[in-house]
Structures are given as structure tokens and as C-alpha cells.
Amino acid sequence: MKKIYFLPVAFLFLTACQTMPLKPESTTLSSEVSTATSTKVESSEPRPSSTVNISENEEILSEKITVSEITLTPIDVYEIALESYPELHIYSLGLDNNRIYGFVYEIEGVNEATEQKIELDIHPVSGKIVHKEEETWHIKDQMKKELTRERITNIQSLVDQTLAQNPNATLDEWVAEYDDGRFELEVEIYSKNQKHEFTYDLAN
């Protein structure tokens, strides 16, 4: 009788030893699949090739330009950009107040022939390109609407108007581009340690 009971117990014990590792192996496999999926998602993100060129005339950057020293108008800068890149479709033009070298014009656009997004920083007095960046464009860049010369004819007068209506304010920056279904100019000023933003419609 003892042998009759011993054999089933031994059989069950051996069976349990063979089936127990299945659970941890399954867990390990699941973990590896999850990690591989995550890695695949990260590697699928676009990695645009880009080149950055800074003007050889480095002394330009040492001159911190104030708003009263700006001599070039938005139209001047627009034409300078197109002279350097005739195929450029400009969709953003602005004046940025850089902490290091003061005010500088910024232009963004796309070159459909080379499928590149181009960003330019242009000195507001000399008109020299002090910084240039080219990279493979993204879908969002392709969908931007072109800012034509006619759209920017009133930018300077609108900026001057904003400052005239706020005599104690200082200009921080402005940008013109297509947003919210229309071409807009956004002007930011500081007055009494507070930032104020004004938006104008650039539609003709």
C-alpha cells in the first residue's frame, strides 16, 4: 500500500518541477517584447540632418544693438533673405531681443527645391547673416503659408504705432506669421515691469 501512495506523490512532484519555470519565462519574454517595442518607437522618430553656419565676422555679435539703433526695415530684411535664397518661401519674420547681442531679425522659411527648412538671423544694421541653420523640413513646415512682401508693408508702422500709444514702454519683440486662420503681427512690449501683447491683422 505504501508503494501505491508513493508513486502518485512522486509523479506529482516531478510534474510540478517541470511546469513551474513556465511562469517566470513567460514574464521575461513579455518584458523583452515591451522593451523592443519602446525602442522601435524611439528609433522611428525622424532625425533630420542639419548644418549650422555662423558668420565669420564674429565682431558683429559683440555689438549689442538697441532698438533705437536699428536701421533696416522688415522689407529690407525680407529682400536680403531672398537675395541670399531666391527659392525661399518665407513664412515667419520677426525681431527678437537677444540677451547676448541685442536685437536681431529672425526669418524662417522653406526651400521646396531642396526640401529644407531655413532659419536666418540677420543683423538689423549691417544686414549680414550672423546665423544660419538648415535642416530637413517637417510636415508642419510644408503646411505653413507664405508671408509675401505685400503682407509686411505695414509691419514697421504698426510697431511704431504700438510704441507711440505706450510712451513709457520698451519693445521686447515682434513676429509676423500665419496663425489662427489669418496673417498676424504680434508685438510684445514691457511697460511698468509688465509684458503686454498686441495683435494686428495683416490682411490687405
Automatic annotation (TrEMBL):
Superkingdom assignment: Bacteria
Region (Disordered): 25-51
Native organism: Enterococcus lemanii
The protein's name in its UniProt record: PepSY domain-containing protein
